[in-house]
Structure formats: C-alpha cells, structure tokens
Amino acid sequence: MITTRKVVLLGFIAAAVVALGFADLTGRHTDPSVLLARMADGLLHPDFSIWPQLLNGTMLTAAFAVCGVFFGAGFGLLLAPLYHIRAVRTFCIAIRAIHELFWALLLLNITGLSPTTGVLAIGIPYTGIFAKVFSEYLDEASRAPEAALPRNVGQITRLLWARLPQCAAPMRNYTLYRLECGIRSSAVLGFIGLPTLGYLLETYFKQAHYDQAFVVLAVFLLLIIPVRRWMKWRLAPVYLLASLAVLFAQKTPPMGSGMFARFLHDIVPAPIRTGADWGGWLEKVFINQAWPGAIDTVVLSQIALTGAALIAFFAFPAIVPRVAGRFGAMIGHLGLVLCRSLPEYMLAFVLLQFFGPSMLPAILALALHNGAIIAHLLGRQATSLALRPDAPKGLTLWGWELVPRLSANFWALCLYRWEIIVRESAIMGILGIGTLGFYIQKNVQELRLDRVVALLAVSFLLTMAIDQLSRRLRASMRVGTQLHIEGSRGNARR
Amino acid sequence: MTRVLATLENEDLGWDGKTVLAGVSLSVASGERLALLGKSGAGKSTLLTTIYSRLLGRIAYVPQDTGLVGPLSAFHNVWMGRLDDHRTARNLRTLVWPSKAERATVDTVLDATGLSGLGRRPVMNLSGGQKQRVALSRALLRGGDVVLADEPVSAVDVTQGAELLARLDETFATSVIAMHDVEMAKGWATRIIGIAGGRIVLDCTPTEASDADIAALYV
C-alpha cells in the first residue's frame, strides 16, 4: 500500500498538536530584560584574558575528536566487510543507538574523567556508524573488477584489490565529514566534565561571565566552520599523532583499581544482587522513570521534528541563488552554517540561559539545528537542479519548481532526521528537562548503574522503534529509496 | 592433436530466468581461434561467459567493461591477472609496496601493448583505448591455455587492434573473442560463430562464410 503524503502529513500535525498539549513551555516568569542587557554587554565587551584556558580547551576538543573519529573509522573499516553478518550488524546498531553523552556517563564509572573516556565515548558509537556507511560503500562498488579477477583468488585479496580501492576516496571524504561531527560531540562532552570547550562554556555561563562565554562560543565556531580547510587528508597522520601526544600529556584523577569488575557487578539489577523485591525495582525504574522519560522524549522530539521540517521548508531557498540572489544566498549560507555548526545540546544550553528551564530551549535548538541541516542538503540539491533557461526566479521558482521537485527528498530527509532527533531529545534531559537523559543522569549520580543500563535499553528500544517506523513510512511513501543520505554526506561538503 | 576444451549441447542460455540463446550446441577445441559475431545485444557476452564457466585450467578473461579498478594504477590492474598465484599476505604487500621485479615484469607487458611508461598512472585517468590495452595486458601477464575476450579492441584503431590480437595469439594457443569488426574477425579467426535471433546461425571457417551469411547477422 502506498501511503499518501497527505495522510502522513496529517498524522505528523496531529502528533505535534497532541505533543504541544503535553509540553511544558512556560519558561521563566521574571523579566528577561536585565539578563538580556547583561548578555549584550558581555557580547560587546569580550574578555580575551582567558586565552590559556581557551587554547587548552580548543586543543583538547580537537584531540578528542580526531582520536575518537579515527578510532571509529579504524574499527568501522574492520567491521564493514562483516556487516552482512547478523550478529555484527546488531552489535553495530546497538553501539550507535546510544548517544556519545550516554557512553561518556557510563564510561565515567570505569575510566573516570580521563582521555580514554572521551575517546571511547566518541569512538564506540562512531564505530557503529562507520561500519554501516563503509559497508554501504563496499556494497555499491562495481562488481565488474571482481568478475575479471582469476577465479581462485581468495576473499581477502578480492576485497583489498578489487573492492576497497574503489571506495577509498568516498571513505576518506566521509571520515573528514565525520570529524566535523566529532568536534561537536567532543565539545558537548565538556558538559559532563571533560575539559573541552563545552566545559568552559558551561562554567562561564553559569558564573554569568558572559564576556568570556561568548568568546568560547566564537572560538568553537572558528574551530568547526573552517574544518575542511585545516583538516586535509595528507595532514591526518600529523593531527592524529599530535592529538595522541596532547591526550597522553593530560594528568588524570586517579581511579581505584578493579573499576571494571565493580562496574560489571553494579550493572546487574539490584534484586539479583541483593535479593530485593523485583516489584519495587521494576516499578521504580519503568513506571516512575522510564515511562515519563519516554513520554517526554517523544513529546519533545515530535514538536522539534515539526519545527525542523517547517524551518527547512521555508529556509532552504535562502541558499539558492536563483531564489535569494547571490548576496542573499551568501547570507542564507551564513545563517545555516551557524545553526548546523553548533551542536543541539550546546545550542539548547545557550537558549536555556535566555528562556529559563522548560522544554522551549530544547525544542528550538533541535528544530534549528536539524532544520538547518535539512535546508542545507535540500538547498544544495535545488542549486544543482537542471532548470530550463526560462524558468521563473524568486519565490515563484520556489513554489512552482523547487518544492514539487524536491518534495520526495524533503520527506525522506525529515523522516531520516526523526530518529536522530529522538536520540538527541533523550540527551536533553541532562539539561534538566524530563526526558530519558534526566533519569539516566540522576541514576548515574546516585551510582545506580543497574537502573542506568535499564533506562539506556529503553532509550535504545525507543530509537529503534522510531527508526523502524521511519523506514516503513519511507518505503510505503516511496521516498528516498535511491537517496543514501548518511553515505552521501561525505561528499556533501565538497 | 586437438583436444575438446568445452562442450555445449542443445542448451538454453540466459540469466534471471530469461533465455537469451536457445538450443546452443558448440564445442571449443584447443588451437582454435573463435570469433563471435552478431548485433549488440544478440547474446555474444552470454555465450562467452557460459564458455568461461565451462572451461577448466588457466583461463584469461577480458570482460566487455574491462573490469578495471579506476583508482588503482595500471601496474596494479595488470598484476591482478596473477593474484591467484600468490598468497594473501604477498598480495597485500604487492598492493601497498610493489617490488622492482614485479614492476619490471609488468612493464614488459605494457611495452608490448603500447603503454610504456604508464605503469604508475591511475587507470581512471586513461583513455578508453588505453583502458582496453590495460585489460589486455592483464590477460597477457596472466597467460594460460585459453583467452576469452569480449570486444577487447573496440576502442582502438584497426591496425593497432590487429597487432593486439597478434600478441594474444603469441601467448594463448586457444582464443574465443567476441568482435564487432567483421573484416578483422575474418582475417584473424579460424572459425566464425554467428548469432542472430536468439540462436547460433553460423558456425564455419571464415572462407566458408559468405557476405550474405554475415550480412544476415546484422539485419
């Protein structure tokens, strides 16, 4: 059955309306003008005296990203040829369904506040992503060279001589693209205590040192926006060695011995360990925490997805010169680059300072970041469309040519981001909103790791369910079947 | 002494459950030079791959799309003809760090096919004709009892094409080649196989094939 777009659209609108009913958007009740004035003052009088901390934070942000991404790329490359094996695929899906921040919260209990935690928190989920994308590249490689090889050539030789060389260039591009994501992940790890730029940002904002906080934000943008300029493949070994050197030079707080054994002991559900009552434990974890956490995660993600779709729909022509003009397209690019360069979590944290604690900052952050990414990809496609010479310009072009031609891709991209938004919505709980991350962090602080693992499992299942639903919808709507969104991102920035 | 290398007896050939050639009876004997003729899409490639799958021994195969790996150098693509002679570890070493001797071996073949000095060039930067020469070089380096090739010289001019076919004849005792150029086929082959209308309609020596027989293949 082909589900019509109208039905799906109505479904999403209904879901967003219902979600709005559940959402807490109240925010602060005090007058924000004082705060705004202080922030504006900070913005106008930046304080650069913090440069030693800034330098250190920037180096560590880059070092964690480089090491984490190459860790993921290396193991992903090893797993990619085995990805058709069910067990390997399931393993990869599981490790990438858990967000970097959640990995970090878990790893803190084993490796403490050490470089290892940062590298693994990025490297483990990225391994799952790289394995999937690299396996897609291998699948798409031409089979013709293998057919021309002598018949008795072994599997490994076939792979290395005939298949892998065809994929080397897209794999390199994708790795460089992932590095950009890695820098975002690395910065966000600062919010749970690792010494990256996120840590500085949180510290200065919380101390109301806005003159310093905005400098950190600017430095982060200066690091990430020109990443394609400073990160060249030839230089990768240099960056990797430098990053390893920086991380090895870090002094880390000592961890007690036997932490891993203790971790393994602690993640066993309490009723098994202590003989406590199962009913109480299950009620506490699933009724009192997982259920409200999952509801809030879904509520947040549905509103954010709708917001992202709206932003993308109206913003993508802003980077198409035929619609916005050449100067307008430059401005449009600048806006979208800013929104998609800042990670959702960091954006939400900054907006939280304006709007006070409610779901609103998280909604705005998720909608802006994801909307900007979809708008960027759509806008690029729109720019490269072959239009007839007498095609209209401006908004007429947008309405009559671009929207109808790109609507299938628009749907595919939105449905594709859905799962990512859910994953990120769970994380937003760490900011104090009631999504799954809130309960996960609470249990980490109380050292109830058994509950943490149970809640992570719920988060994993929720993400999987959305992923399945999105896949089914895409299939039944016949959109994006030939669109390898994640896989093509590597070339996207070229 | 000629010896039958492969036999097909009243067989239907095709793929994906679709018959391309019906009632094919054909045998290939050692020492023969078979030219497969027919319109494009007639089933030459189908017949060729079927013969490939039936042959035993050391076979060199040149598919129509050349089967080259674009990002790898001409040296690597030619060396692929010998990958089954070595173990995986040696092949890995050659991939990353070809030895001088290996390069010299390949250079000899590249000289013979008119590609001198192009050993280090990525194949994707070569012209269509040069790519076909690389694919033929791979077959020449491989050597063996039989060479099977699918329009291997369609992108080089006639004189050079004839020279390349002569090189193949020096290396291989038996060859089966799908061709697009009738004159070249007549001058080279010992036996012409003509395909039309989903059947083999012609199986004779070049002198026995009349112009009308040949013309009927391309109607």
TrEMBL record, chain A:
Look up and give the membrane topology term: Multi-pass membrane protein
The residues that cross the membrane are 59-80, 101-124, 182-201, 213-231, 299-320, 358-378, 420-440, 452-469
Keywords per UniProt: Cell membrane, Membrane, Transmembrane, Transmembrane helix, Transport
Q: Could you tell me which InterPro entries the record lists for this protein? A: MetI-like_sf
Compartment annotation: Cell membrane
User: Record's SUPFAM superfamilies?
Assistant: MetI-like (SSF161098)
Q: What is this protein called?
A: ABC transporter permease
Q: Which organism is it from?
A: Marivivens donghaensis
What lineage does the source organism belong to?
Bacteria, Pseudomonadati, Pseudomonadota, Alphaproteobacteria, Rhodobacterales
Automatic annotation (TrEMBL), chain B:
Q: Which is one Pfam family of this protein?
A: ABC_tran
What's the protein name?
A: ATP-binding cassette domain-containing protein
Residues in ABC transporter domain copies: 2-219
Give the range the annotation lists for the signal sequence.
none
Do the record's keywords include Isomerase? no
Q: Name one GO molecular function term.
A: ATP binding
The record's annotation in Gene3D superfamilies points to: P-loop containing nucleotide triphosphate hydrolases
**Which InterPro entries does the UniProt entry name for this protein?**
AAA+_ATPase, ABC_transporter-like_ATP-bd, ABC_transporter-like_CS, ABC_transpr_LolD-like, P-loop_NTPase
Domain of life where this protein originates: Bacteria
This protein's UniProt keywords: ATP-binding, Nucleotide-binding
